[in-house]
Amino acid sequence: MKKAVVLLSGGQDSATALYLAKSRGYELYAITFNYGQRHDKELECARKVAEVVGVEEHIVVETNMDAWGGSALTDKNIDVPNKKEDENKIPVTYVPARNMIFLSYAASYAEVIGAQDIFIGVSQLDYSGYVDCRKEFIEGMERAINLGTVCAVEEGKKIKIHAPFMNMTKEEEIKLGMEIGVDYSLTWTCYKGEKLACGECDSCVLRLKAFKKAGFNDPIKYKTKA
Questions:
Q1: Which phi and psi (to 5°) does residue 139 adopt?
Q2: What spatial distance separates the first Cα and last Cα of the chain, rounded to whole Å?
Q3: pTM for the predicted model, two decimal places
Q4: How many other CB atoms are there within 10 angstroms of residue 197's CB atom?
Q5: Any idea what DSSP says for residue 83?
Q6: Domains and CATH numbers, the chain
Q7: In angstroms, rounded to a whole number, what is the distance separating the alpha carbons of residues 213 and 35?
Q8: φ and ψ of 30, to 5 deg
């Protein structure tokens, strides 16, 4: 059985990616990051999703990207906006180089366990405009990984980064997730770490819109629905 490392945040996209990798017959190795984000809701969800799906191993990496902040998700002095105010600007919820860091860890983990496949749930449609979610970035990271790992350079075992939702809308992703049995009640997408999802931040708005357009009820509870 082929092994796959799956970046698992505990959110809607990463959970769908994990279920999808399972449906394709991979032995699953999940990697989650406690990077100094403003709440641990997604970490709790990541553990639950990994347990329910039945991963072979679940690694939680401790980093401290809050040491330099620069994002509303890592600096509690920066407020999380209720929605994306300017469509032409990258929102303050962008965490500088986050996916670059995460994929580097995932590549190291993959090389050690002998996996040649990495799954990440990014998309360049229906997204907040983060530059590290684009196809060009993913392709660039894959090239860098295969230039900097022994398995690729010396052994000819190249690592492939799978971004299956890259050209999917979130509506299409939800429909796919429902087909393969994703339990979205276990996931958390809200940028705020309150008891209920806020329903107003950009992440909540995108999620709610996707479920509505897909024709399904979002199983998590919200304070309000924008």
A1: -65, -40
A2: 44
A3: 0.96
A4: 25
A5: S
A6: 3-183 (3.40.50.620)
A7: 32
A8: -95, 145
Pairing state of beta strands 160-162 and 3-7? Answer: unpaired
How many residues are given for the chain?
A: 226
Q: How far apart are CA 142 and CA 134, in angstroms?
A: 13
- What is the C-alpha to C-alpha distance for residues 39 and 55, in angstroms, rounded to an integer? 24
Average pLDDT score, the chain: 95
Residue 226 has pLDDT above 70, yes or no: no
Rounded to whole angstroms, the Cα distance separating 180 from 177 reads 5
Q: Using alpha carbons, select from 118, 114, 168, 122 the residue that is nearest to residue 142.
A: 118
Q: Which amino acid is at 165?
A: F
For tokens 């196809």, what's the residue? 135
Strand, coil or helix: 34: strand
Distance CA 96, CA 9 (A): 17
Q: What is the pLDDT of residues 146-202, one digit of tens each?
A: 999 999 999 999 999 999 999 999 999 999 999 999 999 999 999 998 899 999 999
- Cα separation, 18 vs 92, in Å, equals 27
What gap in Å lies between CA 84 and CA 211, rounded to an integer?
19
Arithmetic mean of pLDDT, 47-52:
98
Confidence band for 127, pLDDT divided at 50, 70 and 90: confident
In the chain, the amino acid numbered 41 is: K
Tell me the three state secondary structure of residue 125.
coil
